[in-house]
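Fill in residues.
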């Protein structure tokens, strides 16, 4: 038994039973693709035998590659970091430097994920990580080595890519199972959790995602998508079955903003 290594905005830990209950009954026998892996709550819960994970965030996917290929090097590097404000800003600056090794880049992402304010991953228009220091108990656990090794084993037979979501599923075959968990359409004009890369994820991308969903359906793939419960989603996925589930958000700068919201789960099977 193990858990995702990273926490990520939009993570699905609280919705796992609702999501997996809607999976095809034989999902464990199917090749599984997740083009917006994020923290991987769903992926690491179901532990696919084969398939692929993808995200346009190159730092995130570098992290998973390092976990897969050289977990012990990552453990050794991450264990050297200290949790204090001065160290945090020094390491945050280091994270944005060019030409650091893949292992160091991965270890710094892990450190920042555990010590940044509210566990956020956010970059500015220049792609620089800009989340301030987070205040946690002094005994905060940055690294669980046993858990990381188990995650590494789970990734052994999985392809890891850093591509546009459409490109990442171009080879998905009839009978494969694809789960889309993109940055959501905001519920309000001011709500925005799409700053995982400097490019964001706007309405044009949402429309293109719906188009890819339909293309995979025509190809004979089994497809599920998660998104906001808003009229635009109902419009984009008209003709497919949609289930509404109640979710609670844990990554928010305002604790009062972590109340439950309705989400849509769209399926083609």
């Amino acid at each position: 038994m193990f858990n995702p290594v990273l926490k990520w905005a939009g993570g699905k830990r609280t919705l796992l039973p609702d999501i997996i209950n809607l999976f095809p009954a034989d999902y464990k026998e199917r090749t599984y693709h997740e083009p917006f892996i994020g923290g991987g709550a769903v992926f690491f819960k179901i532990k696919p035998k084969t398939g692929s994970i993808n995200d346009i965030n190159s730092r995130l996917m570098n992290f998973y590659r390092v976990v897969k290929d050289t977990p012990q090097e990552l453990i050794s590097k991450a264990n050297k970091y200290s949790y204090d404000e001065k160290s945090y800003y020094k390491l945050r600056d280091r994270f944005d430097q060019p030409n650091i090794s893949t292992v160091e880049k991965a270890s710094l992402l892990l450190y920042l994920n555990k010590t940044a304010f509210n566990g956020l991953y956010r970059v500015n228009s220049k792609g620089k990580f800009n989340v301030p220091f987070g205040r946690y108990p002094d005994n905060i656990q940055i690294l669980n080595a046993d858990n990381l090794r188990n995650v590494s084993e789970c990734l052994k037979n999985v392809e890891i890519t850093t591509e546009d979501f459409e490109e990442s599923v171009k080879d998905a075959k009839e009978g494969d199972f694809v789960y889309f968990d993109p940055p959501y359409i905001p519920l309000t004009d001011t709500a925005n959790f799409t700053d995982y890369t400097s490019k964001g994820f706007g309405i044009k991308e949402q429309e293109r995602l719906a188009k890819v969903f339909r293309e995979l359906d025509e190809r004979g793939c089994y497809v599920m998508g998660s998104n906001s419960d808003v009229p635009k989603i109902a419009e984009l996925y008209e003709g497919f079955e949609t289930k509404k589930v109640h979710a609670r958000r844990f990554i928010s700068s305002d604790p009062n903003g972590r109340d439950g919201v309705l989400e849509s789960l769209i399926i083609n099977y």
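Confidence is low (pLDDT under 50) at residues 190-198, 251-258.
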